[in-house]
Structure formats: structure tokens, C-alpha cells
Amino acid sequence: MPKRNSDTEIAAFFGTSTSILRGLLAAMVVWTIGQGIATAKEKTVPWPTTEFVVILESPYLNDLQRAAIAAIGVLDNQTGLVDEAMQPHIEKIEAYLHEVALEYQRMDFKPPALPIVDGRYQVNLYPFESGYGAPARVKCENPTFLEIDLDAVIQWGKWDDRLYEHLAHELFHAIVDSYDHCDIDINRFFTEGIAEAIGIDMSFKLRGQERPRVNYDRWGVRRYDLPLQLPKDKNDAYRTQSFWRYLGEHVAAKAQQKTASVNEIPADYSYLHTIMLAPLSSGDDKAVLRWLDTGLKAAINQPLDREYAFFLSTFAGYGEGRYTSTTRTPDEVKALAQDEMFNQCQTLSLDAQPAGVSSSLNILPLAGECIRIDGGDVNRPEALTLVIQMVADSAQQLHQIWLGVAGDQKTSKRLAAAGMTATGKHYARWHVDLLPEQEMTLIATNINATPWSTTPFIGEVSIFSTTGLANSTFVGPLPSASTPPVPSRTGDSRNKQAARKLTFNGPSATRVEIDAIDRNINISLHATPDILNALSGINAEGGELEHLITKGEILNETLADMNSAFSNLSALEKSMPGTTIDIGVPYFDYGFTGTLPGARISTNNYDGGHLYAVGPKDALPGGQREFKPSGTVTIIQYSPTILEGRFVANFADPNALTPKQMQESQPTLDIVGTINGYFRIAAPWQGDNRYEPDLSVPPMADMRYDLMARMPAGQEDLVDAVLEAAEEARRTGRDPDLSSIAASHGTARANCDCSCSGMQKLEAMGEAIDQASRAPTPAELAMAKCGLTCMAEYQRCE
């Protein structure tokens, strides 16, 4: 079966090239900045009041009990204060709750389900029963009351600042009750998690009070190696605040045309209102996950699987700024938090096994795994391209996995996946660059596109680098035509001290093609710019369309450097053999090790031709000539995940026989150079034609969410219209018809420059606005709307 490249398939979806993406994004994103600002204007939901009154009694007292308490003065005896002395504390509570209520009202939440007394929400301050253990509460009952334990909070006149956090927390419970969602309906990971997140943040925003940042309690580290909806215990249910806060930061960042990251930003919890508006028929895990997934798509235009995977990768990277400690560095605190999150991270060391390492992987549904990479030689001058592979028994299991770099805003589903029916094994791969002295932590998240159907992931993970090395006796630079290199029959170069070493780093430079039908294996080592390796790796958060778009952006930004790099490589190939090496050997299967003589090995020559590892002696007496392949290849290890070996080749030019040699019966070619080389190729299954690409999930499946991620809220109709036009173009083979989009969102054509020059101006304007982190001017908005009008023309610009 011929393999299909996902990028090509996505490009085909939009037409003959990806230029429509440029026409869509360059022309629309700038315009939607202004629209995003406009749509971000908050609509206030009217509350009957935002004032509160504290009543010094239990809400459950009858008249007889109330009279008895008044007679014996229970409150005075418990606190050491008379009612009058309580007044400053009461005023603090009332004032603070009023400010919190204004914040909740601003975020469009429904009014709390609390009784109103004389135009103010009732708050009951009294001593709780012994051993209750919390300073405040809101019970999921009808009626609902906001109760504060006087003894636990105010002891002998001393105010406890943690009460601010608890008050906001409990008031939010009363709001959740107004949506008819209680602990009975939803696991505490939601009800307690959201109240904990917003309670902590309100205390910090309004009173500057927060939990110490010396450890990970401030941000809500819990066991995320366990399913999201099944926290380890009550405490971890509260600590799920971290996920809900991340979503709030996502909303806040989106409004600023940014992305939620390790950098702190005040969260916007208004998305919870949209989620909670939907009814929930059951507290069953599947029903709750469906409800959350649907709610997130409605609230932030992103599904649960995507956001949860991004969250785990981002949250695991929290460090400096989020954490402060007098005894530990932020990285040390971060490592401790990661170990707590995932019940100890795996550490895979490239020191002990420089070629790579493998380990088993077992991830529960809606859970994650932490993998630390010990990068080996920190003195290496260049980045090391790592190929991360996972193997499982089904393609579906692999499709559930998202892999991200902790804190690095690079999270992705597999970049490629394939399986072999005969073996029943399926493979997926990702690429990441490990910089010198970088400590990298990978986060694998197991969550399906339909989260409620996620199954446990049981498989293996391997981390290998793809590289090639060539120790060459060829000399450079290019000799002049009048002084060609002097050959040597002994195989020694004319200047042994001038031997060259070349490194072929990454999957773009070192590749293998395995043809089980024609029974041969071809290995290539070609010097290529490092940027090509970066382009094939994880460069963005999202699906394959997002990676394709990001790849195009990287190419645009580095075009000059790319041209220079290719020019230098072209000059290098002309100046020194050994910059491109091609190896061909007879077919061998996985598990083979040993030496293969007679390998076909060629390399580039000084003049643009080729040199071959043949002979050097003619194998046929007489006038006919046959210089048999003479290269030697030794296979060190070979499996679907790694091909490692060495090769030796003495190169000659069969077309360079001298007149004297032509007269000989069996002439011997002059050896013009020798290369001793090494290759290590990760994921050779990608080049094996027995493997069938996993096409069970169309590459365009995440397309809508990739586009939505690049646009402010409120542009759903625009994205859907573009996708509909693209699908129609794919089906008919015609160019996409964008006239309806231009008509509904663009401006008059007479006022627009629809040339490629006009598009360049639009792109430059977008970059300027983005760099300045500002809103566009009215003139810039008008220009951006021209981008929609001219989208059809812009898509043809190259």
C-alpha cells in the first residue's frame, strides 16, 4: 500500500497547496483581534443584590432554641467577645463577600441560591458542631445557607486571613447550587475543584492573600497519574483546582491573543457558566465526561481531550515565578511537583545507552505519565533530535496518546502512526529537539477524542536519536581543475591529516527505505540544514493542521537562513566527497545482526558526479569490465524502532580509467578516498513498505479546533464556512469558493488591494500588531477586512 503523507492530505483538503491557509489566517486573524476585543465585552447578569448581612446564629434554630442561646450567652463564652466586639469582623465578612459577588456577577454567573433578608444575602456566623474540620460550608440542600464556624475562624478576637479564601469558595458553592448541580450530580473533582480554584484566586486578587509558594500546594498538585474524574482522595478532589484554573487562564490568555503557559495570568472563570448551564442527567462518569466535553466545546471552542493534554504538559512545567523557595531552586520544586503529580517520574538515561532507551508504559484513562530524559553528553555543541516512539497492540490506543514537553507549549498527537497486520503491533512517533544542557521532561496523556471511551494504554516507549557519522579521508576544499586530487592505490589520502568528520543529525539527514517486496534496503546519509529536522518535529500545540501551519511560519521566518544553508551545502558537496552517502544491501528482517559484504555504497564526487565503493580490481578478464560492489556494512541492532550499524567503503571512479589501465586485462581502479561510517536510524518502520499507515482517524479531524485555537471567540461561523468551502473544493476538485465568506465578513473590493503586495502589507501589519501586543487601529481593522474580500486572490500568492 503506498504511504500517504498527512501534510499532503491536509494540503489537498484546501486545494493544490497550503496557500489557502495563508489566505485564511494572514487575512483573518488580524481582523479577528479587533472582533475578539469587541466580543470579550462582558454582559452582566442582574443579581437581586450583591450585599450581605451576617447573622450571629445557626440557620437551623427554632424560636425556642434561639431564646435559650440568648439566655446563656453561648456566643460570648465561646469567643471571649461580646456582640459589639464582633462588629469589625462582621464588617470584614460583609464587605469582602460584596466584592466577591461583584466579581462573580461580572463573570456572568447566576445569583447564589441563598436566602435574602432585607435586601441582603443571609450569612450565618455561629459555632459549628465539634470536630467539623472546616471554617465555612454551604450544604447542597434546599434552602441553601452560607455558614461560618465562629470558633474555627475567630478565636479570642484574632482574625484568620485564610477566611477570605473559604468565603469565596463557599459562596461559589451557593452559585453552583443555583445551576442545580451538587456533589450528588458531579464528582467532587468538579464541584470542589472549581470552588477551590476560584476561592484561592479571589482571595489573592481582592486581598493579596495566598497560600505560600514554597511548595506546590498553591497551584493544586494532585495525583494526575490517576483518572481526572477519580481523584485519589478528598484532598485531591480539591487540588483538581489546577485544571480548572488552567482553563480560566486559557480564557484570559485567549482574550489577549496569547496562549495559557507556565507564566502566571489571572484566570477568567466565566467559562464555567456555560458549562453549568447544560443539564446533567446522571452522576455516572461517562455522563459527566460527556457533559464536560460538550460544555467546553460550547464555552471555549475546544474539546476536553485537547485541553486536558495541554494542561498536563503545561502544569508539569510550572517553575520560576509560580514557585518560590529559600531552600530549593524553582527547578527542584518543579521536579518534586512532577513526582507528586505522577507518583514518581520515569527517568530514561541516554548516558548508559547512547543509542537510546526503552521502557514499558501503562497509563490509566484520563491520566498521565512523566518521563524525564537524562540527555547524556551536555558538552555537545548542537541540539540532539530525539525520536519518541510508542508501540501498542492497536492503532486506537496510540491515537489516545498526546505527548508534550513539560512547560514548553509543544503538545501533540502522534505525528505518524502505522501498523503491521502480521505482527499485530502498531507504532507511533514524535520528534523533539534536546538542547545542550537541557533537562527535558515529557508528559504522555492518555485521553481519547471521546474521553468517556478512553481505555488504559499498555505499551512501550522508546527514545532514540537518529544520526550518522562519517570519517572521511577525502580532502577539501575543491581542488582546481589544473591540480586534480592525486589518487593512491593504497587507499591512503594524499594528506592523511586532512581527514574530515561529518555528522548527519536527525531524521531529515539519515533515513532508511525497506522494500520487502523487491528485497532490498537502502540507507542514506545526506547533509541537510538542521531546520529540516525542526520542521518535522513537535513545534506547536494541536493537531496536524496546526503543525502544518506552524511549519509554514517557521519556513517564512527562516527562509533567508534556509537559502543560505542550502547554498553552503551545495558548495560543500562540490568541494568535498562524503557529504551524501547512499548504501544499498540485500533485504534482511528485524532481529538480524552481522556483517554484509559487497554492499552498494556511493558518494558525491568533486565534480558533481559520483564515486563508488567497487572493485578495486576488475572481476572479468578481457575487454569487458565489472567492478563489483565492495562496501561492507555491519548491523549492530535492528528492530522496528531502531536500525544501528557501521560501514566501510573504499571509493573509486569506474569511469576514470587511464589509457594505460584501459589496455590491461583486469585493471585495478585507483582508490581516491575512504569513509568509515556509522548510522543510527530511529523508527525504521516508517520506511518499511509492509507497514500500513494508520488512517483510521482522518488528518483533518482536529482541523476545526486547530483553526479555532488561532481565533478569538465568536468566529465559529467563519471557521465553519471556510471548512465547508474547503470540503466542497476537495470533493469537486475546484478552487474553494470563498465569495460568501468575503461578502459576509469582508469590505468593498474597490477599497482593497488584492495583489500579492497587498497581502504582504497585511502580513506585516499583523506582525507589527502582534509584536506590540496592542489592538488594531480603525484603519488597520479596515485593511484586515480587505483580507477577507481578497482571500481568493491571496491564496494564489506564493
If you had to describe this structure to a student in words, what would you say it looks like?
This protein is an alpha+beta fold and 798 residues long. It contains 25 helices and 26 strands. Strands 16, 17, 18, 19, 20, 21, 22, 23, 24 and 25 form a 10-stranded antiparallel beta sheet that branches. Helix 8 (188-207) packs across helix 10 (241-255) and helix 10 packs across helix 13. The two termini are 33 Å apart.
TL;DR of this structure?
The chain is α+β, with helices and mostly antiparallel strands and 798 residues long.
Q: What average pLDDT do the residues reach? A: 79
- Helicity range: 25-40%
Provide the β-strand percentage band.
15-25%
N-to-C terminal Cα separation, in Å? 33 Å
Question: Which residues sit in consecutive blocks of at least 5 with pLDDT less than 50?
Answer: 1-42, 75-81, 477-499
The assigned structural class equals alpha+beta
Number of helices: 25
Number of strands: 26
Q: What is the radius of gyration computed over CA atoms, rounded to a whole number of angstroms? A: 33 Å
**What spatial form do the alpha-carbon principal axes imply?**
elongated
Largest sheet: 10 strands, antiparallel
List the helices and strands and how they pair.
Blueprint: H1 6-14, H2 19-39, E1 52-55, H3 63-72, H4 74-79, H5 83-106, E2 116-117, E3 120-126, E4 136-138, E5 146-149, H6 150-153, H7 162-178, H8 188-207, H9 234-239, H10 241-255, H11 271-277, H12 285-300, H13 304-315, H14 330-341, E6 346-349, E7 356-363, E8 367-374, E9 384-392, H15 395-399, E10 401-405, E11 410-413, E12 416-420, E13 425-434, E14 440-446, E15 457-465, E16 467-472, E17 500-505, E18 510-515, E19 520-526, H16 530-535, H17 544-557, H18 559-575, E20 580-586, E21 594-604, E22 610-612, E23 631-639, E24 642-651, H19 659-662, E25 673-682, E26 692-693, H20 703-709, H21 716-732, H22 739-745, H23 756-772, H24 778-789, H25 791-794
Parallel strand pairs: 1-3, 3-5, 6-8
Antiparallel strand pairs: 2-3, 4-5, 7-15, 8-14, 9-13, 9-15, 10-11, 10-14, 12-13, 12-26, 16-17, 16-25, 18-19, 19-20, 20-21, 21-22, 21-23, 23-24, 24-25
Helix pairs in contact: 2-23, 2-24, 5-7, 7-8, 8-10, 10-13, 11-12
